[in-house]
Amino acid sequence: MKHTHSIVFLFAFVLIANADLPRLIPREVLFGNPERFSPRLSPDGAQMTYIAPYEGVLNIWIKTVGADDDRPLTRDTGQGIRRHYWAKNGEYVLYLQDFDGDENFHLYRVEVATGEVTDLTPFEGARCRISHITYDYPDEVVLYTNQRNPEVFDYYTLNVVTGEIILLQENPGDILYYDLDWERRPRTYSQPTPDGGEDFYHRWNVEDEWEHIFSWVYEDSSSFSIYFTPDNSGLYLADSTDSNTVRLVELDLETGERKILAEDLNHDIHYGHGTSGFLFDPVTHEL
Asked: Are 66 and 77 in contact (CB under 8 A)?
């Protein structure tokens, strides 16, 4: 009998304890697809694209600005689409997509007028990323991909109209990444050091020899270069040199002087490597 009373008491205790708990958040709220995200204006400002579910899968939608004529531009039924960009000629929308989560992202174009989809980087087992999309070259993008050697990424120009791809900078095998200026010239690169740091090299023209300009030690491994300044004379850095946090810094490539543009004494201005947190005007290239 005592055992039965104990079970009843424990059951009542659990009920009372659960009564004080907040209602569980539905899994769909935490892990389901958003209603819509990632809006992008067309180059002429007349249309807008965004990502939203179509038949349960994330796809690109398009609409006329100021009108209620939303329609799916893509009809993917597999992995879905999460990143997209307008080609600056306004004829295509570009997007990155892998195959069943293998992270080998290909670059696709979808024609706005017809919805026709084309794989612009049909290289088996290769991964690509976009480096530059600007109005200076409306029919082209700069991308980097490991199609030649799976261990390193080379830089290419890609004509999104014809599909022609031209090698811009080959990685000899020991380069972490290159920085291209706004004229698409490889001007700086980062090379790993044995102690976990990075050596940084620069040249003014593609015919010049590379010159070492500075190093980051292991303690500054959260630092990275972002993009060139609009006049190509300087380089924006996410830099923790002589600081406890990562700061936004402009490096003068002529004098080596560093100017702090933004900082927080308690927080990094950016978490992790990557330029997605920094926005540049596609016409003036201002940060």
From this structure: no
